[in-house]
Amino acid sequence: MKGFWVYILECADKSYYTGHTDNLERRLFEHQRDLLRCYTSNRRPVQLAYACEFESRENALARERQIKGWSRKKKEALMQENWAALVQHSRARAVRGEPVEP
User: Residue 92: exposed, middle, or buried by beta-carbon count in 10 A (0-12, 13-18, 19+)?
Assistant: First the structure.
């Protein structure tokens, strides 16, 4: 049984917010209504740009942390499901000597 989500929101200022939850619909409502008092509070409205479901909270949290370390271009490649670009942006970091996520 799945039930944990990683999501990326595009904020009004074009920045991205990444989070995880066990109730995606409720969490989106909370972000839109400023019920969470977090990064998105001053960047509304927000819209869902990406969501992926996981079997456990631990897996969702691990993926959230991984994505938070990614560049904007790599996040955009993920949201567009552009796997070639995702790999390319990973390699670009490796060439520059930066750590690359597994």
Answer: middle
